Amino acid sequence: MEQHRTRPPQSQPSRGGSPLPPQAGRGGARTARQAGAGVPRTAKSVSPLVQAVRRFPNPRLTGLGSGLFCTASMFALACLIQLLFGASLVVYGVLFLPVCVLTAVWVRRADLVTAVVAVPIAFAVGLLPIADSDGGFGGRLMGLVTALAMHAGWLYGGTLLAGAIVTVRKARMMTRKAAQRRRTT
């Protein structure tokens, strides 16, 4: 059986006294970004709105993660609306729009298309607790179909909003890649 060493060999210097390599940020040469880190920017002033947006969390969800986030958020909001507002579909539709925006903004670049697919599914799943029903599976299904038909404007609006955000993000990503290719050639 092979045994691995737990201590570094004596020929290598120990980490205690030697500086870290330059890419670690300590010791060695500083990059241009690190050199100007303490200098305030005067050329461009950032608006307070942009500063507020930068303070928000910025997770990057996978395609499945964005679908689960959107679906779970809409279902939880629908349950909360059922308790507080008595199944108001207008309140549900209004709260659907910010969830669409967050889903489109938080999905990672490789999975941009999934945000547009997940949003309508989440809208339909979220309607389950607040759709009118006469009882039983058939009544629940008819209530769901009726709610989808009567409030399709919210569904289309949220999907369109998510699609617009995803399209802008994809266009910016393609522009950056093209500029990067031009710089390398």
In terms of topology, how is this protein built?
Layout: H1 32-35, H2 48-55, H3 63-85, H4 89-106, H5 112-127, H6 136-150, H7 152-184
Strand content: under 5%
Main beta sheet: strand number and arrangement?
A: none
- The number of helical runs is 7
Q: What is Rg?
A: 25 Å
Q: What are the secondary-structure elements, in order, as H or E? A: HHHHHHH
What general outline do the C-alpha atoms trace?
elongated
| Structural class estimated from helices and strands | mainly alpha
Overall pLDDT metric: 82
Roughly how much helix do the residues carry, as a percent range?
55-70%
Number of strands: 0
Low-confidence stretches are none
Q: In angstroms, what separates the terminal alpha carbons?
A: 52 Å
Keywords for this entry:
185 residues, mainly alpha, 7 helices, 63% helix
Architecture overview:
The chain is mainly alpha-helical and 185 residues long. The chain is built from seven helices and no strands. α3 packs antiparallel against α4 (89-106) and α4 (89-106) runs antiparallel to α5 (112-127). The mean pLDDT is 82.
What's this entry about, in short?
By secondary structure, the protein is an all-alpha fold. Helix content is 63%, strand content 0%. The chain is elongated, with a radius of gyration of 25 Å.
